[in-house]
Amino acid sequence: MAQRAPTAPASAPVPSAAPAPSAAPAVRECGAHAARPLELFCDDCGRCVCALCPALGPHRGHRARLLPHAARDKQELMALCLKDLEERKKQEIDNRRAVEQAAIDLKARAIMSKRQLSDKVTEIQLLLREEESLAKSFIDEKTEHALEAHEQQMESCREKLGALETFSYRIRQIQQQSDPIQLLQDCTEIEKEMQEHRSVVEQWHPIPLSFEHIINHYKHLMAALQSILQKPLEVRLKKDIFSSLNATAKREPGTVLKTVSSVDRLLLLKHARSPTWEYDSLHPRLKLSDDRLVVSCNWRRIFYPCGPQRFDKLWQVLSRDAFFSGSHYWEVDVLHAGAGWWIGAAYPSIGRKGDSETCRLGWNRASWCIKRFDIEYWAFHNGERIPIVTEDDPERIGIFLDYEAGILSFYNVTDGMAHLHTFRCKFTEPVYPALRLWEGSIGTCKLT
Q: pTM for this structure?
């Protein structure tokens, strides 16, 4: 024993591999062989063992490696795992971004689809109004022709009635003759004419002009439309081969915002108006052209009469023309209006004095407008604002009002007919075109 004592340290681990003082000594010793240090790693069992375990202990025949080699391999394995985890994290981040972008694109497509739907519904309404006008014109034309014929017939009746009255008077005169010779002579002269008047009298029965076939035509049209619309929308879309084609699937994200199905401008021009601006509502820093079509800023205050209709704080003006029924379309030129303007419509009840919300165009229930501020465009009504996405800055704005349908739509008509925004409400007062300026000028385009 005295000779073997000095050799024991030779097989013990080097001091540098000793555990930290805080580690328990039992962790560093073999559980199968007392006092034997852990020097190897059993790959089959995944445990640290002493040098005797693979030869004499429970790990006999197992694959074993020195601890440093096994630790290095495990570190390399964990490094690969960390690399894979980073790649997976990156992929999950990309996936999240893709889903977020898909959600943004979906919202944008939904907004644009609703705008396109509004355009199509507006176009249908315009076509129906045009059809109504054509049908009424047809009725008027047929009625006019029938009335002309009836007037001619009544004139003929009046002429015949006059002739009969004259002849009756002549017969009475002869009948009252006291001289029988004269009576017989005069009666003989008119006897042939008297025989003619004793023939069968014609009775006229005017055939009433019926428009039932026109009404029936539109009843059938309405029934056909109802038979289509009574089916659920999803059922109709499944049968429509065009609805299964996704026109935006092949486009890059975001390009859908530039795709607008616009209303035919020719349909709107059938309701064209050229409203002029009201002198009595003009702010003192604004001035009118001689034809009252152009409103421009004037940096020197003009001393207008201070009436109740005049805006005294906000650089605003209303039109002279009020629309209280029907469809109307007008255009304004904003090319020289600078980077801040408001275009819209208002009730006559909008406030005129001060700069509170009751007077501001678009900030109350009595007005609607689209606003440009620098490079941003917004739709305003009752203080609520909605952003407007437009590819190009408009130089000419088209405004369409359908009073009964409660529609006020704005279009960029600079190059084509791009829909900007549509307000929907029930109009209760006359609607006046309105504008507000910061600089430059805005002009009504002469369409009529």
A: 0.51
